[in-house]
Automatic annotation (TrEMBL):
SUPFAM superfamilies: D-ribose-5-phosphate isomerase (RpiA), lid domain (SSF75445), NagB/RpiA/CoA transferase-like (SSF100950). The active site is at E110 (proton acceptor). Pfam families: Rib_5-P_isom_A. Homodimer. The keyword Methyltransferase does not apply. GO terms for biological process: pentose-phosphate shunt, non-oxidative branch. It comes from Methyloceanibacter caenitepidi. The keyword Glycoprotein does not apply. Its EC number is 5.3.1.6. Catalyzes the reversible conversion of ribose-5-phosphate to ribulose 5-phosphate. It comes from the Bacteria. Belongs to the ribose 5-phosphate isomerase family. This is Ribose-5-phosphate isomerase A. Pathway: Carbohydrate degradation; pentose phosphate pathway; D-ribose 5-phosphate from D-ribulose 5-phosphate (non-oxidative stage): step 1/1.
Length: 239
């Protein structure tokens, strides 16, 4: 691992350590997915070993396996439909705490869990901060049936919303497409600038083959961001 990569991993760990202070005994927690959420799962596991009483809903099978290995008590949204707090990473964060998520392929479950939570807190390193969303491709989860027609409609309606760029089917292992935990596919949209995320989000809801998109709007209450200057806490403008 390069020195810069070790530094980034250190920032992710620092953000996770700051977020664990938000966890109180008896909480129902949503556990995020990805390289930034993983250190938080580790922190929860360490607190559980020290006697912390929490119950958690993982946002992916990968996170489920990680949490089970750490001995974290797990539940489901069917058993526990309302959560106190979800802590997750993000691929991009703007100054209104609007997010692009789904780089790890778990955007559907992540959005369901975040919506079921009283609060959503994002942890990240400061590379993820952006004045305008679009520096990271926007993931969109789609069904397999009619894929070409779905992509063409995404392209057309996105253009009407002011967003144009290459749309690619996400590759997986062995030359096959990436498949989500729900058995769907993901297309990644390279829109260099998403000036009006709400307009684009509405446009994407008009595409029948779209299961969910990676724009998380109005869901994040706080972002804990780590960088060379330490930890900064960003709160939603309405908070």
């Amino acid at each position: 691992m390069s020195e810069s990569a070790r530094t980034i991993e250190g920032y992710k760990a620092a953000a996770a350590r700051a977020a664990i202070d938000l966890v109180q005994p008896g909480m129902r927690l949503g556990l995020g997915t990805g390289s930034t959420a993983a250190p938080f799962v580790e922190e929860v596991g360490a607190r559980v070993r020290d006697g912390l009483n929490v119950i958690c809903v993982p946002t992916s099978e990968a996170t489920r396996n990680h949490a089970e290995a750490l001995g974290i008590p797990l539940t489901t949204l069917d058993e526990t439909p309302h959560l106190d707090l979800t802590v997750d990473g993000a691929d991009e964060i703007d100054d209104q705490l609007r997010l692009i998520k789904g780089g790890g392929g778990a955007l559907l479950r992540e959005k369901i869990v975040a919506t079921a939570s009283e609060r959503m807190v994002v942890i990240a390193d400061d590379r993820k901060l952006s004045r305008t969303l679009g520096s990271h491709p926007l993931p969109i989860e789609v069904v397999r049936f009619g894929l070409k027609a779905t992509v063409q409609l995404i392209q057309a309606l996105s253009a009407e919303a002011g967003c144009e760029g290459e749309i690619r089917l996400r590759p997986g292992e062995g030359g096959r497409p990436f498949v989500t935990d729900q058995g769907n596919l993901i297309v990644d949209c390279a829109f260099p600038k998403i000036a009006e995320p709400e307009v684009l989000a509405f446009a994407l809801t008009r595409v029948p083959g779209v299961v969910e998109h990676g724009l998380f709007l109005g869901l994040c209450d706080m972002a804990i961001v780590a960088g060379a200057n330490g930890i900064q806490v960003l709160k939603h403008p309405s908070a």
